């Protein structure tokens, strides 16, 4: 008897054997017939075959043309390839403070437009807009840092990466300042510098520079301090990130 039952179970499909363990024979037979053996198989119809040889050749030529066009399309460089090619590096001849002063003036106009009327009042709204802004071209000053030698360092930001600010100082030196453990000060003048004396003829360049420095010193400014540890995002990522106000444990 045992050999006969084993032989019959081997001849049955595995689905029938498994169903027989959970259902009676009639229910097993019904489920096997309706749900498994006679179950319809739905297929997604493909494109219709070409009607003649000419249409088949045309379709084959079109397929080859698309594949060739895709192969000839240049692929974008990866971040590692860009670094190897030095696309992010500033040449030594371009590490001059004077070259980036126009960029700083553009950034001042950009940040004034973003802050709007809140540049006069400050507050949480101005802080959230400032943290979401792009800092390429901003003039930052290190006021607090874990490394004492960095305190007082001031320059224009030429590269705003995730963990560092790369700045060019007035001495035409390129400095890499980590954001972690550093507090940066940003000064935004309330209005553009307008000095009619700078356009007068007969004045020397030294007098014009002194006049400009005096005008900038007398100009009212809004001063912000940014904690670098809470600023460790790329500029593109900060634009879409929402910052919430909270108390900081960093003094």
TrEMBL record:
<protein>
    <recommendedName>
        <fullName>Ribonuclease P protein subunit</fullName>
    </recommendedName>
</protein>
<dbReference type="GO" id="GO:0030677">
    <property type="term" value="C:ribonuclease P complex"/>
</dbReference>
<dbReference type="InterPro" id="IPR036980">
    <property type="entry name" value="RNase_P/MRP_Rpp29_sf"/>
</dbReference>
<dbReference type="GO" id="GO:0001682">
    <property type="term" value="P:tRNA 5'-leader removal"/>
</dbReference>
<dbReference type="GO" id="GO:0006364">
    <property type="term" value="P:rRNA processing"/>
</dbReference>
<dbReference type="InterPro" id="IPR002730">
    <property type="entry name" value="Rpp29/RNP1"/>
</dbReference>
<dbReference type="GO" id="GO:0000172">
    <property type="term" value="C:ribonuclease MRP complex"/>
</dbReference>
<feature type="compositionally biased region" description="Basic and acidic residues">
    <location>
        <begin position="21"/>
        <end position="37"/>
    </location>
</feature>
<feature type="compositionally biased region" description="Basic residues">
    <location>
        <begin position="56"/>
        <end position="73"/>
    </location>
</feature>
<dbReference type="GO" id="GO:0033204">
    <property type="term" value="F:ribonuclease P RNA binding"/>
</dbReference>
<keyword id="KW-0539">Nucleus</keyword>
<dbReference type="InterPro" id="IPR023534">
    <property type="entry name" value="Rof/RNase_P-like"/>
</dbReference>
<feature type="compositionally biased region" description="Polar residues">
    <location>
        <begin position="1"/>
        <end position="12"/>
    </location>
</feature>
<feature type="region of interest" description="Disordered">
    <location>
        <begin position="197"/>
        <end position="221"/>
    </location>
</feature>
<feature type="region of interest" description="Disordered">
    <location>
        <begin position="1"/>
        <end position="75"/>
    </location>
</feature>
<dbReference type="GO" id="GO:0005634">
    <property type="term" value="C:nucleus"/>
</dbReference>
<keyword id="KW-0819">tRNA processing</keyword>
<dbReference type="InterPro" id="IPR016848">
    <property type="entry name" value="RNase_P/MRP_Rpp29-subunit"/>
</dbReference>
<comment type="similarity">
    <text>Belongs to the eukaryotic/archaeal RNase P protein component 1 family.</text>
</comment>
<dbReference type="Pfam" id="PF01868">
    <property type="entry name" value="RNase_P-MRP_p29"/>
</dbReference>
């Amino acid at each position: 008897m045992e050999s006969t039952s084993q032989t019959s179970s081997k001849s049955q499909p595995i689905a029938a054997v498994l169903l027989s363990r959970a259902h009676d024979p009639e229910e097993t037979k019904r489920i096997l017939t309706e749900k498994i053996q006679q179950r319809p198989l739905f297929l997604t119809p493909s494109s219709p075959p070409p009607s003649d040889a000419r249409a088949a050749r045309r379709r084959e030529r079109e397929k080859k043309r698309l594949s060739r066009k895709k192969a000839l399309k240049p692929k974008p460089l990866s971040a590692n390839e860009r670094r190897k090619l030095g696309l992010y590096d500033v040449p030594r001849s371009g590490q001059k403070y004077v070259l980036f002063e126009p960029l700083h003036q553009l950034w001042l106009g950009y940040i004034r437009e973003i802050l709007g009327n809140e540049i006069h009042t400050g507050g949480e709204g101005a802080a959230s807009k400032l943290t979401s802004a792009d800092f390429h071209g901003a003039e930052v000053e290190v006021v607090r840092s874990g490394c004492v030698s960095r305190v007082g360092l001031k320059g224009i930001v030429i590269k705003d990466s995730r963990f560092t600010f790369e700045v060019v100082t007035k001495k035409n030196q390129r400095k890499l300042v980590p954001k972690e453990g550093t507090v940066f000060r940003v000064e935004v003048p309330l209005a553009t510098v307008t000095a009619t004396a700078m356009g007068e003829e007969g004045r020397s360049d030294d007098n014009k520079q002194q006049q400009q420095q005096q005008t900038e010193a007398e100009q009212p400014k809004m001063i912000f301090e940014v904690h670098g540890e809470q600023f460790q995002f790329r500029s593109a990522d900060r634009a879409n990130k929402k910052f919430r106000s909270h108390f900081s444990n960093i003094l």
